[in-house]
Amino acid sequence: MSINDLIRQQLARREHLRALEEFILTDQWQGGDGWTGPHPVDLPSGTKRDITTLIERQFVSRNILAEVVTRHRDGVVGLEPRWEFAQRTGRKKLTDEAEAALTSWWDDTGIPAVLQAAVRTLLFSGEKDGKRHIVGPGRSPLRMHIRSRSVDDSGRVPRRASLEEALADISVHAAAPYAAGIVRNEDGDAIATHYAYGAGDDARVEVTGVAWVLRSNGFTVPSEYPPDATVVLVLKKNGDVVDDAGYALGGRLLMHEMEREPLVTPAAISQQKLINKAYTMMSHNLDIAGFTERTLLNAQMPGHYVDEAGQRVSSDDGGTFVPDPLHVGAGATNFFAGIASVDDNGVTRYANPSVVYRDPVNPEAFTRTIDAAEIAVLKEAKQLHVALAGDGVASGASRIQAANDFVGSLETTAVEVQKAVRWALDTALSLASVLMGAPSRYEELRPVVTARLSAVQPTPEDVKATIDKKIAGLVSRQTAMSEVGVEDVDAEIKKIASETDTVTGEGMPVAGDEISLRDRAEAFAVLFRAGIGPESALRTAGLTEAEHTGAAPITLRQPEDAA
Question: Pairing mode, if any, of strands 82-85 and 312-313?
Fold first, then answer.
């Protein structure tokens, strides 16, 4: 199967995502498709349109799905992922050079915002087959490209003198899955990418792949590009190439797709529509309560009879009945007589008129429906802990389990975020080195990425446990500071290192993982109180130059010893 055929099939499986994105993020009415209540039937088109317009005007929504998606996204990429390059012997200067340039590029390009947009899309972008069944995981593409401002009049990017200059030519954005994607063969290997943009005669499709693969699929690739070059072709609707570029990227493609099972399921979508219907019906119920409907039974409206000339006549003259205006509101008085009828004996009889009021429904029926549907959505999204936060009945074990389910779902997404960041850093370095004319300069560098989850704030107990782990040497200073909520760990360590102890005048804990004098003293105290001999405790704590007097710790001395 050709690349073009694979692209068409992929777009067909993702066609529904445009409307789904709109439903989740912006418009839940969707021209009436978002309404699951009764529709007018068997009515003239004008009347049907009027009723539909009335429903739309009264339509009320509360977007739980957007809250769910945003909460999950913020839990995974609300804090920027931490990244660095693995240190290699003899490569520190090169590593420092890459980290410094990429840090500026990361901020200037706005990669954190790109990741947030991509993660949000990932949570609802499951592909569907022709029967509208979900057939694959959600996928969210990240596309790397050369900025248009960097291309000169010849259509090429001039050679750059430094890594910073080359990275300034490169950008990354979160592409919509219904307009972009990675094309895979039967073995699941990525063989090409596509990205559609523009409209009408200006519509373009960007296809990227290794030169020999594109040529074998019928694409016109200029002969100047070697078989293993990564080639970008910009095509018109008819397939004509309007622009091209090639890079020696070692087979890398300029697109990456994060993937995971959709967080927003069809069940959650149906529950969202139920929530909207309940809110809409509750709003209509409020109208009934404020504008009470009443029905008059067996009552003749006030009015008079007129002849053909419009002159008033008596009812006996057989004129046409014309009702008088009905007065409503405070202080209004209306008189209604029973409907007159003549029996078989010619006697006129009057019916007993009565009035029936249509009372509104108890709103509890709607509020219970809304509460149940919201909980169903939260369960589907592994966010039941949100509902339990204000529930005084739920047990502590239930809350812990619900929070653990939420964290577990975040970790699934975090793995994909880490892959995406590694791809972005690695590919940006590779592409930048090509623009510098040194294709293999940074080939040996490997990024290490850690996503920082922010599901819940650490409690005082959590903070104490982290401090105990640090003192015991079970975790590093950076890890401990991250666990207790420090945003920029490296910057904070530098601040601490610059501070001075107010008692000794000596520097406080130094940067890195080196253990401070205070930490060593605390470790010694813990070991000594546990019964370990003073000399052994000093060696274990790293205080080999200190001498112990042999005196017991103050906390273990008897009152008479202290005296």
Answer: unpaired
Select the more confidently predicted residue: 457 or 546: 546
pLDDT in tens, 271-305: 999 999 999 999 988 887 877 777 888 888 888 88
Give long-range contacts, CB 8 A cutoff, 24+ apart: 314-322. none
Residue 200, token pair as written in the block = 């009408």
Q: How many residues does the chain have?
A: 563
Residue type, 433: S
Measuring CA to CA, which residue among 491, 488, 508 is closest to residue 499? 508
Helix (H, G, I), strand (E, B) or coil at 32: helix
Per-residue tokens: 467: 């401090």
Task: Indicate the DSSP class of residue 160.
Answer: P
> Which of helix, strand or coil describes residue 374?
helix
Count H helices and E strands in the chain, helices first.
Answer: 18, 20
Residue type, 365: A
Nearest to 493 by CA among 482, 504, 505, 506: 482
- List helix spans (H) across 436-542: 460-471, 477-483, 489-498, 517-529, 534-541
Whole-angstrom distance, CA of residue 114 vs CA of residue 95:
25
Distance CA(117)–CA(258), nearest Å, equals 12
Q: What is the pTM of this model?
A: 0.75
Per-residue pLDDT band for 394 (boundaries 50, 70, 90) equals low
Residue 190 in contact with residue 30, Cβ under 8 Å?
no
What secondary structure, in 3-state letters, does 188-233 show?
CCEEEEEEEECCHHHCEEEEEEEHHHHHHCCCCCCCCCCCCCEEEE
Residue with tokens 């509750």: 282
Residue with tokens 């980290």: 99
Contact predicate 375/384, CB 8 Å: yes
Rounded CA gap, 75 and 413, in Å? 10
